[in-house]
Amino acid sequence: MASLDANNTASNLFSIGAERLALLGKHHKLLMQGYIDGFIDENAFTDVALKKLIASRILWRPDEQQPLALRPLVSELIASMVADENRRQINADVAEKLEQIRNRVQAYRDAQYKGDFSVAELQLQRLTEHVHDLSGQFEEAIDSLWHRLNSDFGFVSSLDDKIRENERAQKQLRRLLDGLDLLDFNELIELSEGNNHLRKLLVSQLQSQLSSHHSSLLEVQKRLVELLARFRQQQSRAMLIANMAAFLRQHPKYRPADYPNRSDVPSLFNQAAAIQPQAAIALDKASERQVLAGLVRALPRHQAVVLTDTQSASFSSLLVDDEIAARQQALKTDVENFYLRVIDQGCSLSALDYLATQQLSWDSEIWLYQIIAEYQALPVDEKQMFAVVREETKASAFNELLLIRDINIGLQVA
Amino acid sequence: MLQHGPLLERLLAGDFICKITDEDAYRHLSQEQTQQDINHYLRPLNRRLVSNDDNSLYFLGYHELNKDAREHLSSQFALTVQSLLPLLEWLQLVQETLGRDSALTAGDTIKLQEFVLRTEDNQSLRQRLSQLAGDRFFNSQSEQVDSQVKQIFRRLKEHGYLLQPHVERQYYIVTGKIDYLIDVIRFIRDEEHLPVDDTPTQEAMF
């Protein structure tokens, strides 16, 4: 009767479990989103689906006011599967497991004593599971610790967080080590006395597993301490940089003591001047002449650079422009014609009158200048032939500067 | 001694040797016998091997501090003091621009292009960059972010703080000389009892 019940329960258990696992698979995307967000978007599910998920103990409402969320065990399962170190839990509770192992051993022995071998078999099965659980619990914890170590606690961003995470990991590790200390192998040997199955399970298997866990934990601990020291060093370096920079900014005139002139110069500041080794060709080794000759031949030949004559710029060179020269010549010709007219007429002639009557286009001032210039250019004896009378006025009533208004030129009566 | 020829030449030229700049040479220099050999060799040149506190880098110092040596050390020291603030500000700027959670240390890689891009997008970083670039230690005359950054990195390379593994590729590795800078700051701070803290307070931690 009892075994029939057990069979019924087992098949019932199987169908419910399978159904609920399938439920996880059916809503995998939305549930995973819920894991990431921390709550479930209820609108994404149908009412029926929500009810099923709640009844299956996958979702729950922690509080009336709160949205639906994954049950902690489901979150934990996901965290462990994806090695999400932010959410992964470490179970360091060894005492409870030990208690269960003791009870199972007792139940197993009782069943054996009664001769109820199928129950004994079942108890041994459960006992094996507990032993594996215990070992697996350490394995999971160690895996999580290594994972965090190897990623340099990369799952948190700031250095302060890393230091805190490292310290948390070290506390977990101490709890795990304390848990290991609870395991007393003398007790386990006693428990398994006289039974090969138990001895194999509790002594040889568990002992070797736990001792390897123990050494792993010690290794992780060593590495965690090293990493923490490195974090602290980085932290102190960052602070030193920030604070020193702030100090120097606040005290721009600050100068440290004159270390280089102390009797005992700190080795940090003993930085010698550079020496650059130089070498030159030496002819004292006959054996190297060949090499030297080769070097000389390899020298690029000097080529004389022919400098072509180039016109050099000169400030004194006259600007020669054909058009200007032509006008200059025309002015000169007109002035010469004026002088010829004076000679022809034999009487005094006003320069400006001539300019007007001949309808010449020259500016009057330029005209007068050119007439004076032409007069000045004449040889002394010819100058005497002309009488030059300048018509002058004062620049103003108070200025004695005389301005030439016009020039009258006539033949000098000899 | 013959095998250390190139190393001696680098040391004499004033290079700092660390794990990043020359790993083989650094390994040799970490051996006591090599140190003795080199010191013996350098004795007539009035030079000796000097290392920082944690032996992470080596350079040459004077064996005997005569007048010339002291004059050189004085001017060297003045330059070092002058470069402190610009270098510290550069360290802070890099840390903030690249969003790093810790200060630069030897062996870190900086991609110049990434630095330029992130600076260009941010007005306040640009301003700080151009102020820093104009400091006489970096001495950039440019208004362009790109050439300011290039000038800064070039100067840091010249001074041995950065290593450019490939001339045509714009990424740089921080050398051990940055540790030297930190040592210098720490030394001055300790020696002069400057109010410059480097241990985080409990509040900052929790």
Helix content of chain A: 55-70%
| Order of helix and strand elements from N to C terminus of chain A | HHHEEHHHHHHHHEHHHEE
Residue windows where pLDDT falls under 50 for at least 5 positions of chain A: none
Helix content of chain B: 40-55%
In quaternary terms, these chains amount to heterodimer
CATH class placement of the largest domain in chain B: Mainly Alpha
- Average pLDDT across residues of chain B? 85
**Measured distance between first and last alpha carbons of chain B:** 55 Å
Strand arrangement, major sheet of chain A: 3-5-4
The assigned structural class of chain B equals mainly alpha
Strand percentage of chain A lies at: 5-15%
The mean pLDDT of chain A is 83
Order of helices and strands of chain B: HEHHEEHEHHHEEHH
Number of helices of chain A: 14
Number of helices of chain B: 9
Q: How do the strands line up in the largest sheet of chain B? A: 1-3-2
How many domains of chain B? The number is 2
Structural class, from helix and strand content of chain A?
mainly alpha
User: C-alpha Rg of chain B, in Å?
Assistant: 19 Å
How many strands of chain A? 5
Brief sketch in words of this structure:
The complex is a heterodimer of chains A (414) and B (206). With 414 residues, chain A is mainly α. Chain A has helices at residues 2-26, 28-37, 47-55, 72-82, 95-114, 117-150, 159-182, 185-191, 196-250, 289-298, 322-345, 351-357, 364-377, 380-383, and strands at residues 59-60, 69-70, 349-350, 386-396, 399-411.
